[in-house]
Amino acid sequence: MLRSLFVFLSKQHWAQRLITRWGFAWRLASRFVAGETLEEAMQAVEGLARDGINASLDHLGEHTTSLEEARQAVSEILRILNEIQRRGLPANVSIKLSQIGALLDSEECYQNLVTILENARARDNFVRVDMEDSHLTQLTLDLFLRALADGYDNAGIVLQSYLYRTDADLERVMAQGARVRMVKGAYLEPRSLAYPSKKEVNAAFDRQVERLLGATQKAGCPALSSDGRVPPVLAVASHDPKRVEFARQTAARLEIPAEALEFQMLYGIRRDLQQQLAKDGYPVRVYVPFGTRWYPYLMRRLGERPANLWFTLSNFFRK
Ligand SMILES: Cc1cc2nc3c(=O)[nH]c(=O)nc-3n(C[C@H](O)[C@H](O)[C@H](O)COP(=O)(O)OP(=O)(O)OC[C@H]3O[C@@H](n4cnc5c(N)ncnc54)[C@H](O)[C@@H]3O)c2cc1C
């Protein structure tokens, strides 16, 4: 119920105007967002690297409304790739296709994607294409698979276990040897498209992780690249200890070495688990969002765990 409310609010411009004017909202957001500038984000990435943790940087912004804005988003992503290389950091980038024009002109969006992939490839870096809500699932997969077919094997995709279609999509992307980040799914989807119960989503997540670990084994267990940028076949992106444990045990049963299974978590969430997994020898990557357009991202995080709001509010009033 509360989750639906927050995800609904994430798309309302009136709510965005109202909430972002409130100083407390940034205080809340700053738990999940590394800062508003690239410099602040880079400092967060350097801090993670000191703990042996890799990063994926996301310059926040989605549902771009003009092609000019989409081109600016591309320039910003290229600036991040340049900065990662300049500082020699173990980081790659995550992008959203709606940020680079998917809702305006799919061909222009593809050309923008190619520009980013070319630039990343020249720097031996990797680009993860985030998955957005179900209006964009097909287009995202089509453009991603087109990029793979055009030879851009430095791109990876995200699949959401809550969608009924994901088992079939997984087979499609695995057939092209894609690198996959598995997530449960963060948007509000109708019962006609997505499992309504957590139990079913968890079961789908484990099933898909097992399938991808099978593919990892078949591919000879390619490990994380030595510079920490190009991930293995599977990235398990969840803070749910049961999902993490299932992936670990399945990998052990299949005799997949730790370096061939990446765990990913969001900036500011379950730092204890991130550090534990890194200590246990697994590649761990933290998704580091930054920028001024943090409102929809914050709303989705609050929707996953409304207790975050009460916790920060009570601290605020206690002070
Ligand atoms: C690296 C990464 C990238 C992602 N990319 C995408 C994407 O491209 N598309 C997409 O739809 N979704 C994406 N997600 C979000 C994902 O779909 C889930 O909404 C999110 O990860 C919460 O699900 P969970 O698996 O952690 O399990 P849950 O069952 O939601 O949570 C398990 C436990 O994790 C902790 N936790 C979870 N969320 C929070 C929170 N917000 N604040 C504090 N504690 C929390 C709590 O302890 C909770 O009990 C991404 C997630 C990660 C980690």
Give the secondary structure arrangement, pairings included.
Elements: H1 2-9, H2 13-20, H3 23-29, H4 38-50, E1 54-59, H5 67-87, E2 91-95, H6 106-122, E3 127-129, H7 137-149, E4 155-160, H8 166-175, E5 179-183, H9 198-218, E6 234-237, H10 241-253, E7 261-266, H11 271-279, E8 284-290, H12 295-304, H13 307-318
Parallel strand pairs: 1-2, 1-8, 2-3, 3-4, 4-5, 5-6, 6-7, 7-8
Helix pairs in contact: 1-12, 5-6, 9-10
Bound molecules: flavin-adenine dinucleotide (FAD).
Flavin-adenine dinucleotide (FAD) binds near residues 185, 186, 287 and 308.
Radius of gyration in whole Å, from Cα?
19 Å
Q: Per CATH, which architecture?
A: Alpha-Beta Barrel
CATH fold-level label: TIM Barrel
Proportion of helical residues: 40-55%
Strand content: 5-15%
* Order of neighbouring strands in the sheet with most strands: 1-2-3-4-5-6-7-8
Largest sheet: 8 strands, parallel, barrel
Folded structure, characterized:
With 319 residues, the chain is α/β, with parallel strands linked by helices. It has a single domain, classed as Alpha-Beta Barrel (TIM Barrel). It is 51% helix and 13% strand. The chain has helices at 2-9, 13-20, 23-29, 38-50, 67-87, 106-122, 137-149, 166-175, 198-218, 241-253, 271-279, 295-304, 307-318, and strands at residues 54-59, 91-95, 127-129, 155-160, 179-183, 234-237, 261-266, 284-290. It has an eight-stranded parallel β-barrel, surrounded by eight helices. Helix 6 links the parallel strand 2 (91-95) and strand 3. It is globular and about 50 Å long. The protein starts with a helix and ends with a helix. Flavin-adenine dinucleotide binds at residues 130-131, 158, 160, 183-187, 237-240, 264-266, 269-270, 287, 301, 304-305, 308.
